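input
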Amino acid sequence: MKKQTAIIMLVVVTVIWGGGFVATKLALDSGVSAGILNMIRGLVFSVLIFVFFSKDILTMSKEQLRIGLFVGIFNFMGFILQTIGAMYTAPSNSSFLTTTNVVMVPFLSWIILKSKPKMRNLISVVVCMTGMGVLTGIFATEFILNIGDVYTVAGAFFFALSIVLLAKQPENGHFAASAFLMGITLFFGGAIYAFFIEHASFTVVDWKNAILPILYLAVGSNFIAQTVQIIGQRYVPATTASLIFMLEGVFGAVFSIIWGFEQFTFNLLIGGGLILCSLILSEMPIIRKKR
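output
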């Protein structure tokens, strides 16, 4: 697969994830707890991926199992912390603070993969963070983190770890193995959290209003988007992938505006433009060595 094709695939992933911020908010407002939400997402995700790719899953290697479990655990930690944070903050805050993983990925990649970031990658991160600052309005007002924002940033750290580890997938391994392990860990992690920490109940949920947001998250954000993410990340460096995933915040704000949670501002236009510029910069050699 060409790198450009993989990049387009990852951009499509961010569009789907962007809509997921609104779906999460709607599900939580319907009485679904964070644990139950992630448990259902993981169950539907793992069942669907097993139905279509059972043979490839059952023949996975030990290396795939090891990496896939770590990716799954970190992915679950990211989802559960992000979902808890969404209870206490606006969808736009949740979407943009989740994308702080773009700062973390180059350095985690350096530590874990021994892949030293290039100068253009670091410049892209600075431009990207500037865009996020414009989007969140922290340059115009005093920036104060509430508890929901803190949970969201902690979730971003675990998402960054999962992005870096996905770059370590065995080249001859099938993508379905990693996808299944991500789904099954999300299911078990969500179930443990729901029943032992939240003491959650299914009876308090307004299922009539919750079912569609949950299906969007389970089928769209998990089964479709994360499967495409795993396939596309084989051909894109972790740092570039993290910059692409910043677009998740832009699309999250757009969907939030469409759904009536937020109002359109020029911050969205300018900040989103800077994030796009950072992605372009990451793929352009800005300094060429002389022969």
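quick obs: The CA atoms of residues 32 and 205 lie 6 Å apart.
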